[in-house]
Amino acid sequence: MKVTQHLANAKKTIISLEILPPTKGKSIESIYHHLSPLMEFNPSFVNVTYHRAEQMYKKRADGNFERVEIRKRPGTVGICAAIMNKYKVEAIPHLICGGFSKEETENALIDLHFLGLENVLALRGDAAANEKFFTPHPNGHRYAEDLVKQIIDLNNGRYMEEDIMDGVKTDFCIGVAGYPEKHFEAPNLDTDIYYLKRKIDMGADYVTTQMFFNNEHYYNYVKRCKEHNVNVPILPGLKPLTNKRQLTMIPSIFNVEVPYDLYNEMMKTKNEADSDKVGTEWLLAQCRDLLKNNVPVLHFYTLGKPQIVYNVLKELF
């Protein structure tokens, strides 16, 4: 079922989750261990992130170094199929521009269509680890809106090979990313929303936001989006903050604000249990406030500590 159908059929706020594929060499059992307890709360869908290859230098037997590409977290498509098979829940793969050619993207979409997946989340993705700024694949997309267009083309039966006539039409529901505190490359929030609207006008169906720790950022973002005639569902992204290291790491990596009250309470903690308690209480308060305001979805980035998400959901439901 498409995300938009889940939202249309929902009588109340629904739950969704997001996970990372395991690192190469690890078992999918780690995913099941992560997700199985959370299935108690009947999430409507589970997002699975996609990761580009990283360039690394490996020492050869002759002592010289050669540059090789390594994808540390492969398996997104297979994990989506496994989740759907094991839990009978929708799985949503992320698709990214970075590191992938248009042909690779088209082939991935064909695989997803054959597997019966109906939803994708279209993202530009981050710059490579060795790059300061995002550089697209030589035969790939520079912007997420270009990726959205390719998905829309395939939904209309238009393939890259022009001699394919009467190509099978896919029917993907397309999600895109939104940034309540603006994308770090955007000069201001209105400009960021302008480019979001371009993706919506092109055919994207809904928006999932970057994490935030102050709900006012989300409410303001939804308001500003409506002022720009962005009228699709905007799903709030939530993540538990669970240790002091994240106080600097999360703002640095994700360009989001950690409110002073949360920072202050976390700095008082003396051990892991104390930190978990602070993170749980903050996330629980965020969720209760969002539920009062009838948000369509509570979307949890469960990376790291799914137990905290479990504890919060147990309190809420």
- The Cα radius of gyration reads 20 Å
Overall pLDDT score = 92
Which geometry do the CA atoms define? globular
Tally of helical segments: 11
Q: Element order, helices and strands?
A: HEHEEEHEHEHEHEHEHHHEH
Strand residue content: 15-25%
- Indicate the percent of residues in helices: 40-55%
Cα end-to-end separation? 23 Å
CATH top level is: Alpha Beta
What's the total number of strands? 10
Give a quick account of the main beta sheet: strands, pairing sense, barrel closure: 8 strands, parallel, barrel
* CATH architecture descriptor text: Alpha-Beta Barrel
Give the tally of structural domains.
Answer: 1
CATH topology assignment: TIM Barrel
Please tell me about this protein's structure.
It is a single chain. This protein is of the alpha/beta class and 317 residues long. The protein has a single domain, classed as TIM Barrel (Alpha-Beta Barrel). It is built from eleven helices and ten strands. The strands form two sheets. An eight-stranded parallel barrel has the order 1-2-5-6-7-8-9-10, surrounded by five helices. A hairpin with a 5-residue loop joins β3 and β4 (65-70). The protein is globular, with a radius of gyration of 20 Å.
Topology:
Blueprint: H1 3-9, E1 14-19, H2 29-35, E2 45-48, E3 54-59, E4 65-70, H3 76-87, E5 90-96, H4 102-114, E6 119-123, H5 144-155, E7 173-178, H6 189-202, E8 206-211, H7 215-227, E9 234-238, H8 246-254, H9 260-267, H10 272-292, E10 297-301, H11 306-316
Helix pairs in contact: 5-6, 10-11
